[in-house]
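Side project, low priority. Logging it here so it doesn't get lost.
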Amino acid sequence: MNAKNTLYIVVPCYKEQEVLPETSRRLKEKMLSLMEAGKISRDSRVMFVNDGSKDETWPIISRLHEQEPEMFSGVNLSRNRGHQNALLAGLLTAVNYADMIISMDADLQDDINAVDAMVDAYHEGYEVVYGVRSKRETDTFFKRFTAEGFYKVMRALGVDIVFNHADYRLMSRRAVEGLAQFTEVNLFLRGIVPQIGYKWTTVTYERAERFAGESKYPLKKMLAFAADGITSFSVKPIRLVFSAGVCVFLVSLIMFIYAIVVKATGHPTNGWASLMASIWMLGGIQLLGLGIVGEYIGKIYNETKRRPRFIIESVLNTAGKADK
C-alpha cells in the first residue's frame, strides 16, 4: 500500500448542529470503507472546522473527537470569518498531517460517493480533482439560471474557472502548499485553485437537497460572493466602464454638433424629454462607474492592511505530523 495515502476530509461548519450527526456518520462509513479497501491509511481523519458558530456546532465536534479521536478532528476559529476563510484554515491545518485533502460542505448536498473516484484519480497521479455537478435538477429555475450565468460571465471576463464546480475537490499536499503561497485577503478559491497548475481532472456527481438546516448562502451573500469572484480575477469591468465613457463622450460630441447646427439654422429645440433622459442616463453611468472602481479600491484597501484571514483558537487532532 502506498505510504503517502493519508486522507483528510475538511468540512467547514457554520451553525450546522442539525446536520452534523448525520454528516459525521456518513463520512465515517465512507472513510472506513476506503481504509478497508486499502485506498487510504488508518491515519486518515475527518476535520470539521467551526467558523465561529454560536450554536452547538463546536460542542458536537468536540464530542465526536472525544469519542472517536482516531476518526474525527476539529479546528475552532476565534470568530466567524466566512466560508472561504474557514475552508482555507482547514486546508492549511490538514496539510500538516495529510497527503491528500478533500474539501466539502457539511450539508450533505455533495455526493459522498464521489470521494472514491477522487481518491482513485489521486492514485493515478492527479494532484487536483474537481467535483463537477452533472446537472442542476434540484435547483430552482432562478438558482440554476443565475449560477450558470455566473460561470459564463466569469469565463467571458477571462477567469480560469471550472464550470459547475463549487468547493468540492481533492488536492494533494503539494497543491495545498502551492495554495498557501497565494496570500490575498479577498478569497475566491474556485478561481485561485486553477492558478496553482499541476495535473488535474474532474469527477461528476449529482447534488442532493440539503439534509437539514438552512442554506448559509442567501441571495445577498450569493451576489456578494459573485462580485468578489469577478473583481478578484478580472479588470475587464473597469475597462468596460472606460469603453462606456468613450462611447458617451463621442455621443456627446455628436449632440453638441447637432445643437449648434439646429441653433444656426433657426429651428426651435423641443427636446426637454430627451434632455432629461440623457441627464439621467449619464448620471447612472457615472454612478455605476464609480461603484465598480470603488469595489476595486476597497479590495486594494483590504489587501494593503494585510490582516490575518483567520485566527485559530484551538485544534483537536491526535494524529502526528505527516512526513514531508
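Brief comment: The longest helix spans residues 272-305.
Revisit when time allows.
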